[in-house]
Amino acid sequence: MELMSHSSTFLLPTIPPSPTYALVVLNQSLPRFAPLLWKHAQLRLCADGGANRVYDDMPLLLPHENAFDVRKRYKPDVIKGDMDSIRKEVLEFYANMGTKIIDESDDQDTTDLHKCVAYICDWAQDLDKSNLCILVAGALGGRFDHEIGNINVLCRFSTVRIILISDDCLIHLLPRTHCHEIHIQPTIEGPHCGLIPIGMPSGSTTTTGLQWDLAETEMKFGGLISTSNIVKGEKITVQSDSDLLWTINIKKL
Ligand SMILES: Nc1ncnc2c1ncn2[C@@H]1O[C@H](COP(=O)(O)OP(=O)(O)OP(=O)(O)O)[C@@H](O)[C@H]1O
Ligand SMILES: Cc1ncc(C[n+]2csc(CCO)c2C)c(N)n1
């Protein structure tokens, strides 16, 4: 089985040139490291009301700079969604600066995050998918229906690397098609972590590097799932017969 490596280098000030990052900003308070994610990304999208957050919150995260200058510098490439949450003045501001606006108000069956991920997949058509990583800022905290909708996007695009990020933690999907090596950045993440079966029970999951490792263990909702686990070293391995969510806390400053 092929090996898939994971590393949260996007939270470090300087990063290796690969993978190619795309950033999606959702309609939630911006995580404190949003400017860093923005810098690392080669394509920046706002999901509908996410544009209000860039407009309102980026200047707050950079209080020593002039708000107008910050707004001009943090210009999204694309704003996409059903456009029922973005404020008119924000839409006009970015449209005048050349941001591409994609109104998909006709589609009321997929979320704005789904619409943005579909756009990025088209944009990256000629890229090797294993070299693309989509960072989603503001995916957690707040409305539970939105949080679950965001997790469902991980499942609907299970062959694409997508990482949901909040101020407190990150979540990604470990597809059952691969065995996984997770390289921990000890200065920025851990030690609390979880491995959660999603969509269906896992008949057998095996891990190394955790305080409570699994050894061909069954996991299911209503039975055992691995929450409040702890990373012991800098490398975790995971193999499972079903897709799992991996989550780890992000350290406070
Ligand atoms: N409280 C939240 N928690 C997590 N994600 C959120 C939250 N609010 C919004 N989002 C994410 O940001 C995206 C854009 O948000 P926006 O408020 O524009 O959506 P929306 O479609 O207008 O939502 P709704 O009509 O259900 O209020 C959503 O698709 C969702 O992925
Ligand atoms: C069964 C079912 N439940 C909810 C919605 C509503 N909905 C889901 S995604 C979306 C767009 C949000 O920007 C909306 C309104 C639906 N269509 N079908």
From TrEMBL:
SMART domains: TPK_B1_binding. It catalyses: thiamine + ATP = thiamine diphosphate + AMP + H(+). It is an enzyme of class 2 (transferase). Catalyzes the phosphorylation of thiamine to thiamine pyrophosphate (TPP). TPP is an active cofactor for enzymes involved in glycolysis and energy production. Plant leaves require high levels of TPP for photosynthesis and carbohydrate metabolism. Belongs to the thiamine pyrophosphokinase family. Keywords: ATP-binding, Cytoplasm, Kinase, Nucleotide-binding, Transferase. Its EC number is 2.7.6.2. GO terms for biological process: thiamine diphosphate biosynthetic process; thiamine metabolic process. PANTHER family: THIAMIN PYROPHOSPHOKINASE, THIAMIN PYROPHOSPHOKINASE 1. Residues 180-244 form the Thiamin pyrophosphokinase thiamin-binding domain. Pathway: Cofactor biosynthesis; thiamine diphosphate biosynthesis; thiamine diphosphate from thiamine: step 1/1. This is Thiamine pyrophosphokinase. GO terms for molecular function: ATP binding; kinase activity; thiamine binding; thiamine diphosphokinase activity. NCBIfam families: thi_PPkinase. It is found in: Cytoplasm, Cytosol. GO terms for cellular component: cytosol.
